[in-house]
Amino acid sequence: MEQSNPNSVNVDKSLQTEGDIALGVNGVYQALRSTNCVGEGASLWTDDRADDINTTDNQSNNGEPFQFTAFSLVASNTWLQSHWTALYLPIARANLILSAIGKITFADDKVKSQYVAELKFLRAFMYFNLVREFGGVPLVTERLNTLDDVNRVTFRETRENVYAQIIKDLVDVVGSNLPNVQPAANKGRVSLQAANGLLGQVYLTMATTLDAANKTANLNQAKTYLLACYNMRGFGKLSDIPFADVFDVNKKSTNQEIIFQIVYKQGDPTYRSSLAASNQAKGETINSLAVSQGAGGPFTNDLLKEFETGDLRTDFSIKYANDPSVKAYFITKFRDNSAAATNLGYGGNDWILIRYADVILNLAEVFMYLNDNATAISYLDMVRARAARPLYATMLGDAAYAARYPTLKLAILHERRIELAFEHHRWHDLTRFFNKEELVAYFKGKSQADYNNSPLSNITTKDYYFPIPLNEYKLNPAKMPQNPGYE
User: Fold this and answer.
1) According to the model, what pLDDT value does residue 58 have?
2) Across the strands, what pairs with 262?
3) How far apart are CA 160 and CA 173, in angstroms?
4) Where are the beta strands (DSSP E) in 94-180?
5) Nearest one of 124, 44, 114, 40 to 90, comparing CA atoms
6) Average pLDDT, integer, range 275-294
7) By C-alpha distance, which of 139, 143, 141, 140 is closest to 103?
8) CA dist., res. 45 & res. 64, Å (int)
9) Structural Rg of the chain based on CA atoms
10) Residue 228 has pLDDT above 90, yes or no
């Protein structure tokens, strides 16, 4: 007699109705929230890995995180394994729902089509993170039912093929029936704004990191989709939206600059944001009603020196804590000191993944690479104007600015660093702006005194990518070869 395991749940039986699919789609979104994935706490693989934040404690539990900032990462790092697994979890969930959705009758097929588009976007978004951080990775676009299925896909696909799948998914999404902008009640769900913006970012990254022969074609595609996203905006000039409003918890569902976000629930012990409270320094109340005993959210002197005096973003993003036990700057960009957040610090900040200042600066990059500096500067100036800073042409007359950012490329990178500080873009920006050799030179040109105790001398070309986690490599060393330098 055939029996089933009473302790297991048959997946097919749990995906039989439109409601089941809706719950499944929500489960894919839910997986993004993890600190190991792309949620608000996921700074280790981005800002910490780069030059903005350093995990300075290299002892006990901080030994493994310290490897990311010290360029001493090893394949057996358990935090690295957790990150890899967390990026693949939304992919596995999306593949599972996509395998079942075609067999289910919906009251309105338009809803089904939107779910398919959302799932493809989320799958593409995860692969975009994977390919930028690890290079070629296993490419799975189907439900895996057996060990043979798993073994069949356990090999590192080329970066080119991973990008091809990302493009395929996102082209489907931009051609879907998703709304241009999600209504306030659906904030956190994918829109056509987000799909066009992400596809443009993907083509821009391909242009600077893949075969140079396709660079111009990829840049023109990037321009097409980034402009499509830009033209869907619901505002006139970027300066119409105050910088502080982008991070106002009371405006997070209506702010027209925000394109794609992870929603956090104010006052809720499970789904709250911890950003405001965790970044607050002792003696301060600017971020949260929660009382802090620590130094708050610290960052490098290297970043501090890039914040411009008189810049609205400087005054909003960072503050000096004068408590005798701190006497240092801390992060104030994410705030919720409302009574609703309580003195436990259960903030309501959403985590912003894509916003218009990001897209606008991507357009500046694209036009710069297309040798249209005038248009590139016009986009750069949109961001500077909102920050109440002199425009680029004026700044070229500032000897200190001109010496530090002698090229338009470095000026755009500077603007991204300040505008998007602490928003988990920095490492991906650096690996898009620089090739391996340039990246090493960029870091070694910095002052060790501004970089805490993470030794800049450690960085080599191997650090452009993370190692493949040891457990993944061991599955099939021949088909899952380690990245160079980590063998």
Assistant:
1) 57
2) 351
3) 20
4) none
5) 124
6) 96
7) 143
8) 12
9) 22
10) yes
